[in-house]
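Input.
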Amino acid sequence: MPHLRTHTVRLITGLTLFIGLPAVEGIVGDTETDQYVFEVPADRGIESIDVTMDLSMGNILIGRAERDFLFQAEVALENEKLKPTFEFDADGSEAELDVGLTTKKNENVGITSLSSIKSSEWLLYLTDSVPLDIDLAISAAKAEVDLTGLKVRQLDLELGASRSVLRFNRLNGIEMEMLDIEAGASEFQAYGLGNTRAKVISFEGGIGKFLLDFGTDARLLRDRQVHIETGVASTTIFVPKAANVVLNAPDSWGMSLDMPRAFKKDDAGNWRNRSSEANAFQIFITSSIGKVQVVEK
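Output.
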């Protein structure tokens, strides 16, 4: 039987708090797991939150918090030398939340030690009550980022050596100013990009396999732009069949472009599925080597 020690840490908003205490400690077989719990209760005085997360290793799930909380986290680490860090600072109506991973005091972490936390788990939940500006970095992990139902004002997503999924299954609570995604050597899928209500979407992919799904509601993509740049990659783009799409993809000897039958090239070299200029959804693609496939749905 493992020995368990449980603590729950709640933060009084208006203070700055740095948490590094394990909520649960246990040893099962040869594996030691430290579990951490962190909660920020709801505060009517908070009107926006600037969120910064730098996460790595293990499995990551990000979703919506319970109604009475601005933020909730449960983290289980299979490495006694590492600990998650949580910092929340409220200044008037604006707040900042920082989440990351660091070493414990006087601990040296080598490659062999890092490999032990591949089964670690991050469960992170954000409020849907106030606008969020999110800066999220994920590396060496498998991640499910479900921002459905939140109010995301800005999202900057940086991915490295990961398998990640981004979801907006319903309409974003507010119009998004900018969605910027950088995926290095990774496998990345994004669903419901039309639901983000982003004025401009930028996607930069390195080496990997990428899927960008803009949903089925053409109305959400009127007068919107997406800029896509990939390296050595296979990229699939899903667009609504009813959308007025204008796709600009300069000829490249290394890029294979697979377009639906409804698309024809105009005199300017753009691919179009309609002749009208009104309410167009503009896609700009640059690819070094690889395949780009556009699919209507």
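The first strand starts at residue 9 and ends at 10.
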